[in-house]
Design brief:
6 copies of one chain form a homohexamer. By secondary structure, chain A is of the alpha+beta class. Chain A contains 4 helices and 5 strands. At the A-F interface, strand 1, strand 2 and strand 3 of A face strand 1, strand 2 and strand 3 of F.
């Protein structure tokens, strides 16, 4: 009997789309206004989905407060009110597209969540643009 | 050609997290404020997802009004404006965590939906905490 | 130049509609399922609106973090994960309708917000039922 | 490493539920008010989900602006501010239920999206009624 | 002590923008795709706001269930699953713009709500386009 | 008969809270993480409210498409995918708090909207923090 529990969090960050290995003209051509060298930003909404058996004692797959704490310590402190390109090591050599941010978040959380539990994330860059990643 | 039709419903209920087999101290330690003996409550949002072939005559997997009626009769009348721990048989001996409520709802609906149709539910306890269950 | 700054918060609580001066039959007749003696509950969303001049140094009417702290200390600690009828002094002799909860919240906040600032609140009992109060 | 990117769009359209092969009485009996011969209408929300490998150069599964353009050209121009039964060829002989509209949209998009990429859509007829289709 | 209680409702309808006193060319020129002779449609969201003193017995400005019933009887039955231009008398000679629908709704409700109570409505044609009217 | 028509728009931007006349220590002390010298960012939602008489010919207070165009030309092109502190003249000497951005937007729009029409704006910095301004 496997249930998925989901927790929503958010962080506000600046970024620009930019392949660090490309010159300015190629970045501008590929990413347009998203490549503004002075950055723009987003309110990112993050949904973390954890799948597993329900513990018969607690009735929990994972205590939502523990999951909330893991997300806070692992992701929010690292990304919130930051410039993803400048302040965050994960994107020093990686373009902070929604796809790449989602993969980075999944890898960070995977290391903190019991390996018997499944993990999937949904990351909203805007209400209209979002990505899903399950480590596969 | 298999399509999933989804219907959203909601109910308002009181509950407290409490393993009926544990003493007060253990419940308080495990569940914190969620175990307040005087109860707290939620606006629960429920999404019911039914998967199957599209009927070539009606163009429906299942008539949304029939699905709405099944949810109303089976779940809303049972849970809405109730104290889940006190008024609802399903949680007399079961802790009404989101996980356990989702499993109870799925079991109640499974008995009313054609067995050729797939069934999955999503239950929101709050906008930030929700669970998914597909009977597996 | 007067700007209104708005901060959204929420709390989860149990309640029942019940005039403490009426007998059970009259409460049941007037409030129906909302008067269930075992309580039901809601996820309340609260919007606090503070109006005043923009401080030329900070660019703030009021620091949103200070406002957030006042709401947390004054309202959320008092109401969240509580049974409004049983646990909260404000409704010992007052029926916790959305109207009366809004008036109680406004009075509590009014005492903590600079008297030169205007104060209005919006309280959502559900997505479909909400009330507004400005102390007038 | 497979990521799903999702793009939300919307269109406003009139329709009526009606099997063109049935007489009025049978349509009325089966579809009730939804079969009003003078039509009613909806704000449809469409989510298009595209799954594939992340391009190491761009960091994209698919450029969201290209995906937005495909949806605009293929779906929105075809369905927005239209009467689905009268103006749109896809429903000349097909009842425009949410299920059938979803299948039609999926087929139209499938022809425009690289065959190496997975495709799934979610179509909201109202906030409470929506369908999912993945071409299976 | 005056509180405003708000109730949200919705209806789905077809319409076209069209001044019945103008010819087709002028309607097309002024209203563009919104004037499609075959109609398009919307999910309208309606918020009804009623302002007055809180009754000391009930704790209500107006019983939300009574308000819900008035909206259902007066507006939803009249407009839901209808073609506003064809089926609804209010727009036989009036262009069903959001502005004019709002005024019509306000007038219909004003006749049913106690004259000692204030009345304001908000009508959403889409999430991005909405109007407010208070009878002034 | 005065109706208010409302149009929602949005823009994504980077900013930092910083009084250009203060030193780093004072900015850091006053604005905390919001003063990160490398910037953070937001998805801003903007609601523009225009109040006036309904034109008896069109049924409009103002053509929503014209209002949409004014917002696009005047605000979105100026602020979207920009760094408010660096790229936008309005905040060269002004701290881009939500309050100050709202006042700047109102002033820009006021110059483009017929003076017989009332103007109010609502600016969401996040779902939980927003401001209202009506030029008074």
């Amino acid at each position: 009997m496997s249930v998925t529990v989901c927790r929503k969090a958010h962080f506000n960050a600046a970024h620009r789309l930019c392949n660090p290995g490309w010159d300015d003209a190629e970045n501008e051509k590929t990413f347009g206004v998203c490549s503004n060298p002075n950055y723009h930003g987003h309110n990112y909404d993050l949904i973390v989905k954890v799948t597993g058996e329900v513990n018969p004692g607690t009735g929990f797959v994972i205590d939502m407060n523990i999951l909330k704490g893991i997300i806070e310590e692992t992701i929010i402190k690292r990304y919130d009110h930051k410039n993803l390109n400048v302040d965050v090591e994960d994107f020093k050599n990686t373009n902070p597209t929604a796809e790449n941010i989602a993969v980075a978040i999944w890898n960070l959380l995977r290391a903190k969540i019991d390996e018997n539990l499944g993990l999937k994330i949904v990351l909203y860059e805007t209400e209209r643009n979002f990505v899903e990643y399950a480590g596969e």
